[in-house]
Amino acid sequence: MDIINQIITYLSDFANTSESTYHVNPWIFGILFFGSAIPLYFGYFIIAKSALKIEGKKIKRKKLDKKELKIGIAISIVAWWIPYVYVILFGKLPIGMWIIFITILTITGLLFIKTLHNKISKAEKL
Hints:
Oligomer: single chain
Strand order of the largest sheet: 1-2-3
Largest sheet: 3 strands, mixed
């Protein structure tokens, strides 16, 4: 039980320090971050559905439904940005943290686009 109390104390101290230093409540950020997972992956599903078709155990490319693709991308982007908009609006981060923050957002966005492109291009054409 002592280790559990230490973990709870550490998390509580971390939350209080983060809130007083950066003006960002990590509990709210965590709720927004994990709460946006369902719409984020729903958007991914719509993106995949707009370009791919599953036949048995094979994934095949189909004619791209651009309207469905745009809807999927819009849902994913909005869901992905929700926790970060909270930090942008309410956080007071030092310049080094902003650089790390923007770098992480840029890299994850580019990796998402690259992965999406690779999955679609590797699928068999119908």
